[in-house]
Amino acid sequence: MAGGIGSRFWPMSTIDCPKQFIDVLGCGKSLLQLTVDRFVGICPLENIWVLTSEKYASLVKEQLPMILEENILKEPCRRNTAPCIAYAAWKIKKRDPNANMVVTPSDHFVADVQEFRRVIKSSLGFVAGSDAILTLGIKPTRPDTGYGYIEAVLGDSSLSNKEVFRVDSFKEKPSLEIAEAYIAKNNFYWNSGIFIWNVSTIVNAFRIYQSPIASVFESLVPYYYTDDEQRLVNERFPECRSISVDYAIMERADEIFVFPADFGWSDLGTWMSLHCNAPKDVNGNAALNGKTSFVESKNCVVNTRGLKNVVVIGMDNCIVAENGGNLLVCRMSDEGMIKEFSEEK
Amino acid sequence: MAGGIGSRFWPMSTIDCPKQFIDVLGCGKSLLQLTVDRFVGICPLENIWVLTSEKYASLVKEQLPMILEENILKEPCRRNTAPCIAYAAWKIKKRDPNANMVVTPSDHFVADVQEFRRVIKSSLGFVAGSDAILTLGIKPTRPDTGYGYIEAVLGDSSLSNKEVFRVDSFKEKPSLEIAEAYIAKNNFYWNSGIFIWNVSTIVNAFRIYQSPIASVFESLVPYYYTDDEQRLVNERFPECRSISVDYAIMERADEIFVFPADFGWSDLGTWMSLHCNAPKDVNGNAALNGKTSFVESKNCVVNTRGLKNVVVIGMDNCIVAENGGNLLVCRMSDEGMIKEFSEEK
């Protein structure tokens, strides 16, 4: 899924080139490219599908030249994750009704790619030939209030994979107090937004819990892989309600499972989390690209794209970002105000 | 005098375009242009001389198209103010041995131009036909440690201008404690670096107190206003020692006078003083050019030249400056470290 607009990272991320297309960690690859890299050895390239908008299709092609052009699916409008996933599921199912499917955001960070691959492979084994809906939970390292939580039922030894647990409930982003209570227990995990299932399982789940969305993509079955597909998707996709797959399916279905994983994950949803995962100097300063000098400064994060040199003197916990002639200087604790300034308010 | 390099204001001020050539106050005119404007009605344009380096001659021409090209004097190297002033004095004296002369830096700020003109006219009256060396003192408004001070002898009613006093001594930039003691008295003034004298007076003073410098410019008398002038200036000027007129003349000569003035002056020697004199919003934020939005910020100063938009969130007492692809973000209290980053270290 590569259709987001990344408004919280303005001006680094813009509506013309959002976060997933940017090398936000200064490692030489965009988050989208890193996401595809993580599936090397798990998924053949021809089985990788990128869901994005018309606007970003050329960026996807440019950044992922090895992906088949016909595997770049273009949503005519933004409808959150449920319609996006339904489109991919119905289309893949037409070709292979027994396909197993991993759904992943393209703007997250994973530190331990080897462990990620092990978890994904093990997860695919769990869902293959079963009707399990599996979500990756992340073992929490702090009472983060920026994530949703998954409550697992521990101690059920009947499951075929000893690392997998049945989900008791999904929890919204909590207050700090509640988050602290969650992590004091041992059965709460961060909701990563990464899902694994057999394509028939998710299609059935849509039929049961989101029949209007299911009707749209069912009606398009004759046209997938034909010259009429895009035209009809453009016509029918906007009919879908805008809803996340979490609300649409996960919180309603019964057979939901969680695989608690520990591969150093972040959704990079804030500058603070980006700062946390980026390479830093001894004073905690992260220069994500360009030539930056830090003097008497600590815990700053700098990402500039149109500048030659940046000098930061005497600043603490500060974000400096520049792109396309727009400059942001922001106290880290005030980053919630940034998206006011992005193009889409 | 327009030969300085303004290293304390990097990257706004650069070696290619120093402070005096920049609209640092965001008023639409450079400090050099504002300086010339202050002499309207006092000095005919053909009597305005600009001392600068070869490197900046074209910038001066561009910004001051009304100044005679032959009145732009080019120093072949930087030798501080004494040789610069001697060159101008000897050259002017050759044409008019009775000329009165005002020497002024071109990168200072004056708030009350009308009062400035009154003071200059009154000063010119005082030095005309006398051998007085007159300096403008500024009535101090705070115990500033960034300025030199002039101690005046009050109560001498023998002078022809009741606003003028004899100088007792010049004081180096003081500690805060000493500065406080100075302003507690009533006879200490900031040294503005603005001088008024008859051209014969200053030439004689150089002959007495700086005879090597005097010899250089005396030897060039046959060549001023000839085609050989620049070549010979280039040859001989570098022989002069680098010394300020304060050390070279003011602290040595006897007949030195001060005109205490009060026209809202600053040498704009620091970002803090620039911030102090610039137009500001209700929160004390100064956006000196470009489109800047301040959110939850106060007492910041922003000067960017190559950017479209600047957003400053949650910052206090912060300098944001950009020019030619260089960006500075600096806590105001750390501005002393800025010149480390200018091209001339």
Keyphrases for this structure?
alpha/beta; 10 helices; 16 strands; globular; 345 residues; homodimer; 5-stranded mixed beta barrel; 4-stranded mixed beta sheet
| Low-confidence runs of chain A | none
Beta content of chain A comes to 15-25%
The biggest chain-chain interface is: A-B, 33 and 33 residues
Mean of all residue-level pLDDT scores of chain A: 94
* SS summary, helix count of chain A: 10
Oligomer state of the chains in this structure: homodimer
Shape of chain A: globular
- The percentage helix of chain A is 25-40%
Question: Can you characterise this structure?
Answer:
Two copies of one chain form a homodimer. Chain A has 345 residues and is α/β, with parallel strands linked by helices. Chain A is 27% helix and 23% strand. The first copy, chain A, contains ten helices and 16 strands. In chain A, the strands form five sheets. Chain A has a five-stranded mixed barrel with strand order 5-8-6-7-9. Chain A has a four-stranded mixed sheet with strand order 11-13-15-16, covered by helices on one side. In chain A, a hairpin with a 2-residue loop joins strand 15 (318-323) and strand 16. In chain A, helix 6 (199-209) crosses helix 7 (211-219). In chain A, 46% of the residues are buried. The model of chain A has no long low-confidence stretch (mean pLDDT 94). The A-B interface holds A 11, 293, 295-296, 304, 306-315, 318, 320, 322, 324-331, 333-335, 337-338, 340-341 and B 11, 293, 295-296, 304, 306-315, 318, 320, 322, 324-331, 333-335, 337-338, 340-341. Strand 14 (309-313) of chain A pairs parallel with strand 16 (326-331) of chain B, so a sheet runs across the interface.
